[in-house]
Amino acid sequence: MRNNRGRRFDAEPKLNIKKVIATILAIIVLVMVIASIIMIIRKKSNQQVVNDGVTKYFSAYIDSKWSVINSKGEQLTDIVYDEMLIIPDEAKNIFIATYDVDYTNGTFKTKAINEKNEQLFSQYNNVAAVVNYKSLDDVWYDNEVLTFEKDGKYGLIDFAGKQVLPPEYENITALQGITKTVVIKKDGKYGLFNSVSKTKFLDENYISIEAFGDTYNEGYITTDVNGKIGLVGSEGKVILENKYDGIDKVSGSDMYVVLEGGRKELISKDGTVILNAGFEEITSIDGEYLLIKNIGKYGVIDKSGTVIIDAAFDSMKSCFSGHYIVSTAGKYGVIDLAKNIKVEVKYNNIEYRSDIASLVCENDDFTTDVYTRDLKLVFTGTISQANADKGYIRARVGDEYKYYNLQYQEISNRDALKGNTLFLVKENGKYGYVNSNNEKVVECIYDDAREQNEFGFAAVNKDGKWGALQSNGAVLLEPSVVLDNSINIDFIGTWHLNENVELNTYTK
């Protein structure tokens, strides 16, 4: 029996009751959340929910039975199935219903129905969705094709009911996490079918097919009847023949590390051998230089195999051209291709921020030393916000926040936050606000405060409680709410003025 029925069933020939119950509980919560959101919106606007023109459908557990609701929260039918209705495409009124379930023998039937409980595609038997997922809690379905059964074999139809594959396959499944691709099995061998173009692009010649990466663009690893693996591109073109024992893509290149006859080789996309010695693993390629792992340590060689940096580090990764973040004995630093230590190996962690072209190096006290690409230390503190598009960096230095441009020249908050109407100032240990002309708008009376956020509100604190100001400085909510420290106060939006503000929650 196929495992093609989503989260409600496992690979055994019976229903997985634990997963049924878990799914039911999850859907109940979802329905409650949807209903709550709709009630809140209606309460605040005193209007009907505005539909964006696209009706969406959801399975819903109502009165101990399964039905379908739409994005308005309306129950559409009196469908009363004991099993969850699968909706392959939430914008299309095609629902897969399970019925005649025999829990003892693990048998059941399926059919496609619409919002009027009318059976669709009645000329086909056991119409079902093709389940896909990245993890057990992230399930979705192919929204281009459906399977059907005839005489114990399976085929495919599109969502209009047109047959796109005849019923001659032993099984039809999906590759985990990979869109557009359906795996077809015939005579014990596997091939691939593109569900969008409705074309078979790889014949059933392989004993296994696996995705080569996280997307279909990376291609597919194929294993032939001799147990040898090869690589096929996303459209079915053979990249590497089935003659290898292992294939790994080298990051940042179109090269591969292959295992053949117990020997690892670096080869090009056309199979030309570039390097066949001096490494256990090649982790990345930066121009002519290869970041390698050998005897459990990391270093750099060139494409001729010449050692550039000895394999002596516990970890190593490229941060920018000719520079590598390295670690040894749990501490991190930066080294260049000439083996010069450019940043001392003393930090708990180092991250290269490409958006601001900076090295952020974590100290023991959780502050960070920030270096530019020319390895100049610009400040010690904590970057709280970096907006490359608007050209500023916000950092906590000591006990205050400072703003910098992308060249790390200190600027005012008025220069950085040009779209704001309020700008935070501090006088005698208290906070207030000025306008873009540096004119006082809000007196410095608050114990703590935040810059105006993207919604136009500013958070202020007095006597340990938080409130909010409007964009003109007028009080929206007097400081009256105690917020958990885990809440990102910088992004307080409009407060729940009509709700219980003591819930420590906020919303946009």
Query: How large is the count of helical segments?
Result: 2
Q: Mean of residue pLDDT?
A: 84
Low-confidence stretches: 1-51, 493-508
Strands of the largest sheet, in order across it?
30-31-32-33-34-35-36
* Computed Rg: 30 Å
Largest sheet: 7 strands, antiparallel
Number of strands: 43
Beta-sheet strand percentage? over 45%
Overall morphology: flat
**What structural category characterises the helix and strand content?**
mainly beta
Q: Helix fraction?
A: under 10%
Taking the alpha carbons of the first and last residues, their distance comes to: 48 Å
Descriptive account of the structure:
This protein is mainly beta and 508 residues long. Among the domains are: 1-120, no CATH class; 342-411, Thrombin, subunit H, CATH 2.40.10; 413-508, no CATH class. Helix content is 6%, strand content 49%. The chain contains two helices and 43 strands. It has a seven-stranded antiparallel beta sheet with strand order 30-31-32-33-34-35-36. Strands 6-7-8-9 form a four-stranded antiparallel beta sheet, with no helix packed on it. A hairpin with a 5-residue loop joins strand 20 (263-267) and strand 21 (273-275). The longest helix has 29 residues, at 17-45. 27% of the residues are buried. Residues 1-51 and 493-508 have low confidence and may be disordered.
